Predict the structure.
Amino acid sequence: MAHHRNRRVILKTRATGLPVPELFDMVEDDAPEPGDGEVLINNIYVSADPGMKGWISTAKNYASVETGATMNSFGVGVVVESRNPDIAEGDYIVGRTGWQEYSIVAPEQGGFRKVDPADGPLSASLGVLGHSAITAYFGLLDVGRPNAGETVLVSTAAGSVGSAVGQFANIKGCRTVGIAGGPEKAALCREVFGYDVAIDYKATDDLAAALQEACPEGIDVYYDNVGGDTLDTVLGLMNQNGRVVICGTAATEAWVPPPTGLRFERHVLVNRLRIQGFILFDYQDRYEDALADIRQWFKEGKLNYREDIAEGLENAPAALAGLYEGRNRGRQLIRVRPDPTLS
């Protein structure tokens, strides 16, 4: 077996607020050997996701990373050693790789799949042809259940999940309204991601009034990536039988002590609202169904996307911190090594 040295980013200290690079450390050791059914991949791209804030916080989370462990993430890489009869060296694989150069992955792990570069760029397999879009797909279509002609509102509408939600809602015949931070992101929503209206929340001191103007017939589905004050505002503007999809809580820096806000049960009662959270991993057995639709829409030219690729594994912590400052311009990825499909 070939011998590989592995560089990886570990979580040194748990986060009490927003992630900062100082919480992480880079270590180097030998790459592990794959066991039966497993493959060793050399990662090409790994991701930085908004949900990571929760994974490294002191509060318990659905995907907590232990202190001292390799930082959890999705990634795409090339197989360099296979002990799985269905997977050959040279195949491209997406999986839960962590922030490292070499990863052991196996088909029974969440998110594992073979990628065909003919379907689209490798980097897109972590975004518009991967878990960002799958998250958007199930959150909108399974939980939100929009009908043609309804108004769908999306927060962080220019982000990797939000931009896919808006485009899927357009495909389903909905009117789409996005909330984004800054004129550049609002313009992206309108010009690239096809939103009917985009609100720059940083440019208004009355979000409720801006939303009322943008949604004259009210809001039927709210796909929420932020929570907090924005959610409080939107709940007062939902239509009867409205659906609120809770995908993320990016607006809350920490959960200890618990934040306090508006009491909204009256809106929920009077308007018979349904508020439902979901986690992507709950849908593992249906990923391929979603990807079949998503690949088809991509092939038909219905899905636009943007990427922000940081160079080098050592820049992953800074790239993550930048997400919460709105520095990224699209899906935040980190290039671990040159992409062989681009040469």
